[in-house]
Design a protein that fits this description.
The complex is a heterodimer of chains A (112) and B (112). Chain A is mostly beta strands. Chain A is built from no helices and 10 strands. Chain B has 112 residues and is an all-beta fold. In chain B, 0% of the residues lie in helices and 57% in strands. The chains are: A mainly beta (112), B mainly beta (112). Chains A and B meet through strand 5 of A and strand 5, strand 9 and strand 10 of B.
Chain lengths: 112, 112
């Protein structure tokens, strides 16, 4: 069955450092992969989408990589700030998929 | 621009009581609509999705049902709530042909 694994432990980093979050998937051949941010008590908010033919995607301080051979996506936040503290969810999907399956998320805390 | 409304924000219901959560979307036509549930500290579980009026797909057999009486309205219901129905319920929409899902603010349901 399809499985998505994100960093099982919460991630604490110091302000100014780069945070790296991992999303591994099995029994998938996704055409694209999305990353969302969720704050406590709120709905997830879309951040980035990367397609299978793209190695890397950037948006301001965010960078996503997609390695279809390793079946892995990495999500980086450079120059992290306490405001980046949240749970980050990944969602790989096939091109024809009407629904998304989300990973359980990684809780990131950026310490001042 | 598109907006999604979900209400109520919080709800406390006794076991055995009925439930009705409503979600409406503005600024788009024929959206795909979704209901998710998120248990405390857990990932998103897709409950139902709909690609059109009266068209409902159920992902998880449970004590809940969904209906789509209008193009931009999606309702989650239960005839008799169970303790296990407690959780954070999220409605989301996706544009036809699009990949990104947009979430509402969520309803925190406590069944006591």
């Amino acid at each position: 069955s399809q499985k998505i694994e994100q960093n099982s432990e919460a991630l604490n980093i110091q302000e100014g450092k780069t945070a790296t979050l991992t999303c591994n998937y099995t029994n998938y051949s996704p055409a694209y992969l999305q990353w969302y941010r969720q704050d406590p008590g709120r709905g997830p908010v879309f951040l980035l989408l990367i397609r299978e033919n793209e190695k890397e995607k950037r948006k301001e301080r965010l960078k996503v990589t997609f390695d279809t051979t390793l079946k892995q996506s990495l999500f980086h936040i450079t120059a992290s700030q306490p405001a980046d503290s949240a749970t980050y969810l990944c969602a790989p999907a096939s091109g024809s998929a009407r629904q998304l399956t989300f990973g359980s998320g990684t809780q990131l805390t950026v310490l001042p | 621009s598109q907006t999604i409304h979900q209400w109520p924000a919080t709800l406390v219901q006794p076991v055995g009581s009925p439930l009705s959560l409503e979600c409406t979307v503005e600024g788009t036509s024929n959206p795909n609509l979704y209901w998710y549930r998120q248990a405390a500290g857990r990932g998103l579980q897709l409950l139902f999705y709909s690609v059109g009026i009266g068209q409902i797909s159920s992902e998880v057999p449970q004590n809940l049902s969904a209906s789509r009486p209008q193009d931009r309205q999606f309702i989650l219901s239960s005839k008799k709530l169970l303790l296990s129905d407690s959780g954070f319920y999220l409605c989301a929409w996706r544009g036809t042909g699009g990949n990104i899902q947009y979430f509402g603010a969520g309803t925190r349901l406590s069944v006591l």
